[in-house]
Amino acid sequence: MGISKDDLELIEKIKLYRQDKEKLELLDFKNQALEKENKQLKEALKDLQTDIIGNKKILNQINALKIENIELKKEQEMQKSQFELVVTTPKEARTVYGQIRQNLKKAKKEVLVCSPWITYLVEEFSGVEKEVNMKIITSFREEDIKSGITSLDKLRALMESGAHIRYNNNLHAKMMFIDSSVAIISSANLTRKGLGVNYEAGVLIKDPDQVKKAIEFFQGVWDESEDLDYDQLKKYAILTE
User: Fold this and answer.
1) Is the whole model's pTM more than 0.85, yes or no?
2) pLDDT of 8-40, one tens digit each?
3) What Å distances lie between residue 89 and 95, 124, 174, 194, 195, CA to CA?
4) Counting CB atoms within 10 angstroms of each CB, which of 93, 105, 166, 203 has the fewest?
């Protein structure tokens, strides 16, 4: 007895079903594998994003440090320019004298001076604009006038140029301030030896806070000093004749 046509068709359908089932199982396996791989890729991408964020933070920190370093260098350069050594020697080109002359020419508002002895730079002071407020503190002793380290003629010339002069015989500081922006503090008196012969040293200051503190010191000495006028100059001129 042979296989009927219907049986053959059934067998063929079963074969096709099995083939389709195998294909579906294979596709399902591949799909699961793809899903697993996709999950791994997502995790890897997440880790990569975390690394990128971390790297960005590191780069930002590096850039911030670079900016901070640049600002620090600028500040250091500014500090260098705000404090400068000035000296007097018989051979030194950049002297206290040179800085005083240079800054006096720039004076627009105020010149403040402390110097126990003044016999030099009078012409430079006289050349300061009339509207500039000039205050000078010096010492004023009969023995200094007799010895020549205090000059009545120089003091008179300073008064005639508009300077307001006070004296304090405890004064030892040598200081000058130009427009509250520059301070020159040194060991040099305003004499020929102090500004051109002796070995003297000091500092030129442009730092606003330090200049302000130094001016406060000057003002304290000024308040404790006595006015010097033409009558006193005449009196001492007679005494020392």
Assistant:
1) no
2) 776 777 777 777 777 777 777 788 887 888 888
3) 8, 21, 17, 9, 8
4) 93
